[in-house]
Amino acid sequence: MVHMDILYTAGAVATGDGRNGHVQSTDGHIDTDVRVPRELGGAGGATNPEQLFAAGYAACFHSALQLVAGKAKLDVTDSEVVADVSIGANGVGGFGLAVQLEVALPALERAEAEKLVEQAHQVCPYSNATRGNVEVTLSVA
Question: pTM for the complete prediction?
Fold first, then answer.
């Protein structure tokens, strides 16, 4: 395992009935109910862990994209990252996630955009955390 110099630690607490409970960040910025989505047989009507993961991955990947673009002096004006997080049975008695990231880079040529997305995928902490364990599909819009 690679040694990591910790720069920041985020904390959150889950209470209630797991996926039908409540989550709150220790700083209070997130304070919301979570519900099993209707598609999984739940009541819906609130966020869920997959949406929270998708939001975090999209923001983190967008930041990584801007970092590598800045170093390469490439224009990422009006860029956008859409993260879709799917959950399903993993075939061995548990559940797994799959992620699809669609990146819009309207100021760049397609080949340049694809190269930048691959570079961001090497830098992004979410990409590094999921690599080899979660199927992540990258595409340029």
Answer: 0.94
- Reported residue count of the chain is 141
Instruction: Lay out the sheet containing 20-25: strands in order across.
Output: 12-17, 20-25, 31-33
**CA dist., res. 51 & res. 84, Å (int):** 8
Tokens found for residue 63: 């930041």
Q: What is the pLDDT of residues 21-37, one digit of tens each?
A: 999 999 999 999 999 99
Two tokens, residue 14: 């889950």
Q: What is the pLDDT of residues 35-75, one digit of tens each?
A: 999 999 999 999 999 999 999 999 999 999 999 999 999 99
For residue 52, give every residue at least 6 positions away whose Cβ sits within 8 Å of its Cβ, in sequence order, or none.
Answer: 23, 30, 34
Q: Strand 80-89: give its sheet, edge to edge.
A: 80-89, 95-104, 135-140
Q: Which position has the token pair 């099993």?
A: 36
* Cβ neighbours of residue 41 closer than 8 Å, sequence gap 6 or more: none
Is residue 61 within 8 A of residue 85, CB to CB? The reply is no
Residue 132 CB burial class (10 angstroms; 0-12, 13-18, ≥19)? exposed
